[in-house]
Amino acid sequence: MNPTTTVNLQEILTHAGLSEEPLVLYGMSWDDYSELLDLTEGQNYPKLTYYNGVLKIMGKHGFLHENISRFLYDLVRIVSLVLKVKVISSGSMTLLAKKIGKGAEPDESFYIQNAACFPLKKTLFDYEADTPPDLVIEVDESSKSGEKFTIYAEFGIREFWRYDKNELKIYGLDELGNYREIINSIAFPILSTQILNEYLTRREQDDQFEALLDFEKWLRLQTENN
């Protein structure tokens, strides 16, 4: 592969931004990835994923992807407020690890068990110095995030919610450093995949605002009964 110039990288970003389909490039260096991060600094899109020389660039997402992502964010915020659990959102914060050659930007991420360790700084996340988020969420509406199982596992992120094919699944990091599908959330044991998918379905079939209000009512009822 020929050396990549700044102009070429800008052209790559422009091309990627025109499509909802991901652009995957092979044989890319960490310097290429770092330069692309600099070029996209302060922008929500495109999102970049880097793993062992493979660079995946995701352009703008459509309404449905963003709607599902923000709905899941709303559910987490409601749980935080009703249960009085400290949750700090880190959104699509770029996770970087030059040492292991990996980097990613989740659709949503949260500090929960490690809320006190949230890195309040302007610089990028540092794999060797910062604590990773406790929960990441990926919505596979226009592209797949299968490679992120390996990436997030190496970052030591305990919990991974993945929405794919109209279904949300929860994965927990086991003692061997692998994700296993689980029924209940680690951060919020009161939440099961059944409950989350029930309200995700209601988001689609009914009024979304009413679905969120009903979720809050359900949550308060659970706390009162316990």
Structure description:
The structure is a single chain. The chain is an alpha+beta fold and 226 residues long. The chain contains 6 helices and 11 strands. Helix 1 (6-16) crosses helix 2 (30-39), helix 3 (63-83) runs parallel beside helix 6 and helix 5 packs antiparallel against helix 6.
Draw up the topology in text.
Layout: H1 6-16, E1 23-25, H2 30-39, E2 47-51, E3 54-58, H3 63-83, E4 88-89, E5 95-97, E6 102-104, E7 108-111, E8 135-140, H4 148-155, E9 159-164, E10 167-173, E11 179-182, H5 193-205, H6 208-225
Parallel strand pairs: 8-9
Antiparallel strand pairs: 1-3, 2-3, 2-6, 4-7, 5-6, 7-8, 9-10, 10-11
Low-confidence regions: 1-7
**Care to count the β-strands?**
11
Order of helices and strands: HEHEEHEEEEEHEEEHH
Radius of gyration, whole Å: 18 Å
Largest beta sheet: strand ordering = 4-7-8-9-10-11
Beta-strand percentage? 15-25%
Helix percent reads 25-40%
Oligomer: single chain
**Count of helical segments?**
6
- Inertia-based shape: globular
Distance between the termini: 61 Å
**Biggest sheet: strands, sense, closure?**
6 strands, mixed
Q: Report mean pLDDT, rounded to a whole number.
A: 88
Structural class: alpha+beta
Summarize the structure.
With 226 residues, this protein is an alpha+beta fold. It has six helices and eleven strands.
Could you name the key traits of this structure?
226 residues, alpha+beta, disordered N terminus, 21% strand, 11 strands, five-stranded antiparallel sheet, 36% helix, six-stranded mixed sheet
